[in-house]
Amino acid sequence: xxxxxxxxxxxxxxxxxxxxxxxxxxxxxxxxxxxxxxxxxxxxxxxxxxxxxxxxxxxxxxxxxxxxxxxxxxxxxxxxxxxxxxxxxxxxxxxxxxxxxxxxxxxxxxxxxxxxxxxxxxxxxxxxxxxxxxxxxxxxxxxxxxxxxxxxxxxxxxxxxxxxxxxxxxxxxxxxxxxxxxxxxxxxxxxxxxxxxxxxxxxxxxxxxxxxxx
Amino acid sequence: xxxxxxxxxxxxxxxxxxxxxxxxxxxxxxxxxxxxxxxxxxxxxxxxxxxxxxxxxxxxxxxxxxxxxxxxxxxxxxxxxxxxxxxxxxxxxxxxxxxxxxxxxxxxxxxxxxxxxxxxxxxxxxxxxxxxxxxxxxxxxxxxxxxxxxxxxxxxxxxxxxxxxxxxxxxxxxxxxxxxxxxxxxxxxxxxxxxxxxxxxxxxxxxxxxxxxxxxx
Lengths: 214, 217
What we know:
Chain B: Keywords: Cytoplasm, Hydrolase, Protease, Proteasome, Threonine protease. Chain B: This is proteasome endopeptidase complex. The complex is a heterodimer of chains A (214) and B (217). Chain A is of the alpha+beta class. Chain A has four helices and eleven strands; from the N terminus they run ββββββααβββααββ. In chain A, the strands form two sheets. In chain A, strands 1, 3, 4, 5, 6, 7, 8 and 9 form an eight-stranded antiparallel sheet that branches. Chain A has a three-stranded antiparallel sheet with strand order 2-10-11, with helices on one face. In chain A, β3 (34-36) and β4 form a beta hairpin. By secondary structure, chain B is α+β, with helices and mostly antiparallel strands. Chain B is 28% helix and 32% strand. Chain B is built from four helices and 13 strands. Chain B has helices spanning 66-87, 93-106, 153-159, 166-183, and strands at 13-15, 19-24, 27-32, 36-38, 42-45, 51-55, 58-65, 113-121, 125-131, 138-139, 142-145, 191-197, 201-206. In chain B, strands 1, 4, 5, 6, 7, 8, 9 and 10 form an eight-stranded antiparallel sheet that branches. In chain B, strands 11-2-3-12-13 form a five-stranded antiparallel sheet, with helices on one face. In chain B, β12 (191-197) and β13 form a beta hairpin. Chain B is globular, with a radius of gyration of 16 Å. Chain A binds chain B through residues 1-5, 130-131, 138, 147-159, 172-173, 176-177, 179-180, 211-214, and chain B through 1, 3-5, 140-142, 150-162, 175-176, 179-180, 182-183, 214-216.
């Protein structure tokens, strides 16, 4: 998603995310470059932030804004989970993100993808783009690099893939986007979330699939 | 969506569009969608053909302001036919692309049009050249353009292989156009494709309801 506002001085986080919803587990995938226009402030950022044991979020937009929101939601969700005495729902986490993003929409530049697993609905992906909408989707992409891979995701995603197919698809998609988007790059971070827990992995730059033929 | 930035500053009728061209083993496929819109709000034509023939085996796809693109292709057609009469031989594809480049570069302040030129000639066989907004000229095996092209960079990078067969290339081009039309609001309608080989030229039109469908439709 692009925006017309001048970025506030500070780090602008742009990259591509694509959590893919998959029963029962769910890979989350992010590339890693944090940039201040022409300067890369951090080339190995971790934009996959745990919000709870089996709920993660992918952050895009302003790094400061998204870190602040994620901290607030982690606190709110943790409190809620203790009150209920059971693990929170992914939908709850997504709604907490939406509440903050919508209320402070004028001040914030944050595009967030919430993904996780809960006992009620299994693996889920929720998209909270800039402006504070909330929508559940089987697969979602976000960040500045995402425009380049809409076509790839539309054509390659099939419902009910296996975990490995899903991981391969997400890694391929993020690599393609990193190749085209100047603000995305570095390493690819993947997380697979299921009933059994969270499995994280990193694909380094030289191990990424190569696609350029021209 | 108020904060979404508007890509095109084109006033009047524009071909917010998706255009592409790809070489295969023995020929080249060039294609486009068929929608023309005003400011991205009103579809002024659902069936416009953006693939224009500039010579027997050289075609051109236009993107940007429709008025500018039509004026430039008209001038290019004239220049090219004159050139081919003078040289007494069919023009080279790069000659066609250069004609467009000269027009686009020398009038870069006034014009807002980009082109993809593809064709077959006896010297180098099938070729694709792209002349984007400022008037650069670059030859590539496969190229995409127009507002809808951003959504298919990933797909094209992943799926295009050099020296495909004619059918594979046609399917690749149809899929790419369908994906772009599915995501870009100013691209749509039918898919116009032209296959150019040594032996001749073939038009393929894929109506909207026959385009490949993907999982989310």
